[in-house]
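Hi Q.,

Before the meeting this afternoon, I wanted you to have the zinc ion prediction in hand. No need to reply - just skim if you have a minute. The sequence and ligand are here:
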Amino acid sequence: MKIFCIGRNYSEHAKELGNAVPENPVVFSKPDTALLKNGEPFYLPSFSNDVHHEVELVIKISKVGKNIQEKFARNYFNEIGLGVDFTARDLQTQLKSKGLPWELAKGFDGSAPIGEFWNVEGSGLNQIEFSLTKNGTLVQAGNTKDMIFSFEKIVSFISHYFTLKVGDLIYTGTPAGVGPVVIGDVLEGFVGDKSLLRFEVK
Ligand code: ZN
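Predicted structure with the ligand bound:
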């Protein structure tokens, strides 16, 4: 399976990192070894001193597709989940300044915690509230109404470059409020007031 991620999909977050709002979705990917499931702990990697949490809604592809038109994109996913796109920000800044790919800063082991999914068939996607707490304190809150690119646009765009297969995941971008984690932190993700993701940093 493949894991895609969208960068800069919430303008407040693009601004906080000093990035321009993009014309097309910014797409990168993570290997399947990045996945962290079932509330397993996240082990801070030794090569970074500034690993940031980015809470994101995650699309799970339910049907094989290529060159999907935006108006049909809803037929290719029926579940959405909540995940974290961990980012070694110091390493990413270094790579970006040299014009190099972000893989090392984004795709390392455990960098893609994933929580529970829920069925979105027949339900609206434009007002989904989600949030992340760190040690019980709210650190990030987002609403899909603020997305620059919709779920449908993202699925369509990616499918013009990569064949999407059943089980592929797409992390759809983070709202403002990203920040560092340290050993002992407990992160918990919510959709509305329902907890869908919880794990400890070790
Ligand atoms: Zn992200």
